[in-house]
Amino acid sequence: MKITDPDNIESSIKSTTKTIINEIDYVLDGIKEDEFKKFIAAIDSSKNIFVTGQGRSGLVARTFAMRLTHIEFSCHVVGETTTPNIDEGDMLIACSSSGTTSITCHIAGLAKRLNALVVVITAHPDSELSKYADLTIEIPASDSDQVIQSQLTAQFRSTLFEQACLVYLDAVILSLVRLLNREEVEMMKRHANLE
């Protein structure tokens, strides 16, 4: 099926983006402040930080890893050829909307057995993945919660989770930048220059 009359499109870019922003705002309004503070403290006290996630959640996790590196944390993406071993005193951050992605659960289980701190970011805090967590951060955007029931979201599957997760993790970065007094000029020195 193709659009036959582009001038007859009912929605505009402004109304469409407003819909998305309102949905993200609704989800982030349900974030628990104490989880946010514990997460920031855990990042600050970790020797090395590892991130994992599959699909679009993995892309969000990779973005967070890059931003942590920019503000001078030792951060690695699980599965990359240069990723070192994880150990006690390190942290694994596992992102999964469903909390049931088998590879993410497996990696979280390994990290737990190796005495690393495991932080899970999910829309389903009672999921299998959360069984491995020392700290679970709920991004309340699951298909079964009131976001869907109230028909607030018009987006496909876990899109709202990924968007809200990205904004949440950017808020973590901004908070760390402020708390640690990171300067733009210093962050730029750690920005990739082979691009």
TrEMBL record:
GO terms for molecular function: carbohydrate derivative binding; isomerase activity. The keyword Isomerase applies. InterPro entries: PHI/rmpB, SIS_dom, SIS_dom_sf. One of its GO terms (biological process) is carbohydrate derivative metabolic process. Residues 39-182 form the SIS domain. It comes from the Bacteria. Keywords: Isomerase. The keyword Isomerase applies. This is Putative 6-phospho-3-hexuloisomerase. It comes from Candidatus Scalindua japonica.
